[in-house]
Amino acid sequence: MTLEQAKIEETGAMTFEVNGTRVEATPAPGQCLRTLLREHEHFEVKKGCDTGDCGACTVQIDGTPVHSCIYPAHRAVGKQITTAAGLGQPGNLAPIQQRFVDASGFQCGFCTPGMIVTAAAIEADAALGVDDLPRLLKGNLCRCTGYRSISDSIVGQHTPPDGSCHTAPGHEHAEASSLGPVRATGRTRGARGAGLVGTSPGAIAGERVVSGLEPYTLDVAIPGLLHLAVLGSPHAHARIRSLNVAKAAALPGVHRVFTHADSPTTLFSTARHESRFDDPDDTLVFDQTLRFRGQRVAAVVADSVAIAEAACRLIDVEYELRDAVFDPRLAGAPGAPLVHGDKDPVVSRLADPTRNLVAELHGEFGSVDEGLEMATTIVSGRWQTQRIAHTHLETHATMGWLSGDRLVLRTSSQVPFLVQKEICRLFDLDPAGVRVFTARVGGGFGGKQELLTEDLVTLAVLSTGRPVQYEFTRTDEFTITPVRHPMTIDVTVGAQGDGRLTALKLGVLADTGAYGNHAPGVMFHGTSESVALYNVPNKRVDAQSVYTNNPPSGAFRGYGLGQVIFAIECALDELARELGVDPFELRRLNSVRPGDPLVVTHEEGPDLIFGSYGLDQCLDLAEAALKRGNRAVVPVGLQWRVGTGMASSMIATTPPRGHRSQASVQLVAGGRYLVRVGTTEFGNGTTTVHAQIAATALHTSVDRIDLLHSDTDSAGYDSGAFGSAGVVVAGKAVLAAATALAETLVEVASAWSGHGLTRGTDTGTWQLEHDGLRAVESESELVSLDTLMHWATANDVGLTAVRREDGALRSLAFNVHAFRVAVNTATGEVRILQSVQAADAGFVVNPEQCRGQIEGGVAQALGTALFEEVVLDGAGAVTTRVLRNYHVPQLVDLPVTEVYFAQSHDVLGPYGAKSMSESTYNPVAPALANAIRDAIGIRPTELPMSPDRIWRLLHG
Amino acid sequence: MQIPAPFDYVRASSVDNALALLDRHGAESRVVAGGHSLLPMMKLRLARPDWLIDINDLYELDYLLVDGPVLRIGAMTRHTTLLESDDVRRLFPIITDAEHVIADPIVRNRGTIGGSLCQADPAEDLSTVCHVLDAVAVVRGPAGERMLSMAEFHRGPYETAVAQNELLIEVRVPIRAGSGSAYEKVERRVGDWAVAAAGASVTLAADGTISKATVGLTAVGLDRNVTEVEAVLVGQVPTEQLFAEAGQLAADACDPLADQRGPIDYKRHLADELTRRVLRVACSRAAASVPDVTIQEG
């Protein structure tokens, strides 16, 4: 026994080194190394799963990477531990970290410190080599990037902004992706490398992200922090008859126990939208009626999570069990158990609570019966989609505290301003007394457009006066966080012999689970652009979203479109086959073009316009890439069949009925500008894009732009980062404010030169440049921005411009995906030989980032298409409760996707840009299904298209 | 955070120390090696030992040794070591095949062969591999060492013959000249638990006929080798038809359950398909192997 070990057994204390610094610590019995390191403020060690599956907590111990979440803290005695921050720091990055910055090897960046620790070990071990990188990187999950940029970062292949290409190891067969053609803006007067729109500067927080020093939601030490844990319902449908919390309250270290007796009685929805009337009010902070397994029964606030969880187990609850309904097809049947039978349909905004109906849509344009009469070919089918978990690596979490008499919430949210509004409504607080902000958010994908942790933290902070933290576990993410709506979709489509569509009939049944958050929105959005994409004289939609006692469904990337597009695009593919028409041709023949009416069950309102159009280019680009092929080796053997498939999708660039953002831009000292904008950065890249937009409008460079965002105290109102609004709404507000300030600066220069401040006249004689302004006609010397700022301050002239954007007009963006696959008929295995996505993103503000959004969306969609599923046991209990049995794609599971951009220029978006974040996901699953159909001659209709299902199709 | 039930933790300093600790703390103590199965189970409260005895520092059990006609593998040998060993690749490519598809490199850095065998997860790959290779488990307890065949060692899902006060210390794999072996699995995602997997070891006689053949299956409800195939294969020259026959026997012998990874008939089909594939590869490797494998006397 060594001296160190003897020391543990005597005192419990031990020493080890972290990044070369000696640490003395006394781990709690059973403590893992991850939590011990975080207690010592090594916040670069992240929690993604806490069960050794995701790799976010990876550290090196004596040079070997391990998952610190399942490494007993005691084992670290005498060891040398290296974290991402120990590899290098901003200004002095390790080469591997610099390459992650240069190649944009991250989006939200939450997985990055762990990823880099693993990558550094691979690099240090000459025996490993990077040829087997896809397998070497299996222990580190990334949900944002799709891994291509990570792979490039590790092997040192930086895709240059001119759009040339790369091949990732293991994917040498992949053809070059093209980042071009990218339209020049004609406004790039700034210095080279200024990072203006149309170029690809790296993320602003890049150096901090790669060294683990960029703080996320819980990466801050707050003295006296208490922890909250929740007792979840063991029953799918029950009423609490009685609760005894005495034993729990008496446990040492427990501060408060909350039950339904402590709940505000105001109904709300966890879903957050610009209009709170978009979602039904059917939820209470604590409800005496429990409608799904895991729903809050009680919460405990204690000195530690362990004590709070222990106290939850001491709460005695007597339940009165109720009949439950789990099958959405039975939810509307007479006599079915009512999930919200107690609700007033008007107050809660429900279609019919006596039939478990949250929302429905029935409407017809033209006559589908007549349309089918005219058709020579009719295809009809039913498609089924599954529950998907967002699996952002940072789980939901909130920290709250009192600052004076103000409540402060630091939360992992896409919608801090909407959270502020609803928290004030629920707890009857003055908005001036509530600050909600986010640090960098570790991914969202729609999952953080919900209010899931903030309400309990508010309750706990207000009643204890102490700072309180509530952090979801990974299991919480699978069991109580809303998932993607599962849908059953019936499609009937008819066409004449020439391929022109005559009728399209759509039936949708969505299972929204126990609460109606996002139920109406997902149902309406799902059946809108998917249907409006095609010119069909006769259309009918019948859609319902129903309550069941399953865990709630909610917002997920694509917001319903992904599910419905899967069905419609597969039906169209089958129709093309029956007609003998090429599937690309069928789309060319029937897709809407500028000038065509946009029709679902009636013509869309005038707010939706063709601000630009690039679908035709997308179809051409994808078709050409597929024809060109790549060097992928087709697997040898009679068991392999090869096929190709494609699908299209359309999406409005903004949510309907308004999305608001107010931005301000201010000249500050040193020729710098401060941009304040409310929207949230959660890996979508908006901070970089906003800096590019401001820099371009102000003729400066991105390194002169500072951003304050996502904070109700420091930025103007913003509806939030959802509905793909970050560039086209918030970005447009930034552009308007920056442009206004640029005009003001010209006016001020003119005034400074002795003409007095005459707004709007004679301003053309001064020109704004990087370091100041110059009189054009007189070719004067440069007047520095600092000089002007001092003059303006002395003369009481404001140098801040504030502008708003309300998203009143919306444009349309397009994506086309195509695949070539090989399918093994003996095992059902699908191997992707070629993956192509062509996107119409308007003017592409940051090609590398936009490409990353597309690659990440494709990766997430391939998980959906091939293996992801939140599985229920038929009685409302989730069986896939950890990442070990909910499978998100790893590098080794994914092909490299060739990405192509259409050349278009939108009349609405800033600099002609359109949104490109959700939409990239939508055409992938149907394109893959169509390729599999082509390969094996039988159509898969259920997601995920797992090997056993493909095999079943072949061997019925 | 996911917090395990409270437990006490002690680090064993030697095999004897570990055995003494097991003896002292009794039924509620568990040994932890790499910790990749036990610690997540504890965090999810699927396992709740009062005492955790950490044998991670027992470097005396971390070795690979070609010792006469057997390969001796210390129970604390990491998956990474097995994967990277040239001896293992040369003598038992089935182990290299299996290690290549086990989890991910970070797990393989900590996870051990002893931990895998003692966890006895029905979807665990190395148990099948050891069955197929006729490995012997060396188990030490207060009364000394005992040698168990895999059939004796492995009692069923999550259950082994290792008593509470015993420790698996070594796995011995017999080396046979003229042998070839292979492992293959079908998984939903790379590095995942097997939907189904198969392993085979074949020894060829000088005349090219099969003198010994063993097939094992993973995750399809069979805790033993597919002994039915031996009678069909032994004495025959390897052919596709023979493999097909063996595949059918394997499919008949297994007893899979329907679960998230697939329905019964699919798994049964995979047992057939994968048996054919591993026999094909094992036979070709056996044919390619030098018949007179040099075995160092030691």
Automatic annotation (TrEMBL), chain B:
Keyword terms: FAD, Flavoprotein, Oxidoreductase
Pfam families recorded: CO_deh_flav_C, FAD_binding_5
MF terms in GO: FAD binding; oxidoreductase activity
Entry keyword annotation includes Flavoprotein: yes
Top-level taxonomic group: Bacteria
InterPro entries, per database record: CO_DH_flav_C, CO_DH_flav_C_dom_sf, Diverse_Substr_Oxidored, FAD-bd_PCMH, FAD-bd_PCMH-like_sf, FAD-bd_PCMH_sub1, FAD-bd_PCMH_sub2, Mopterin_DH_FAD-bd
FAD-binding PCMH-type domain boundaries: 2-178
Name of the molecule in the record: Xanthine dehydrogenase family protein subunit M
Organism the protein comes from: Cryobacterium gelidum
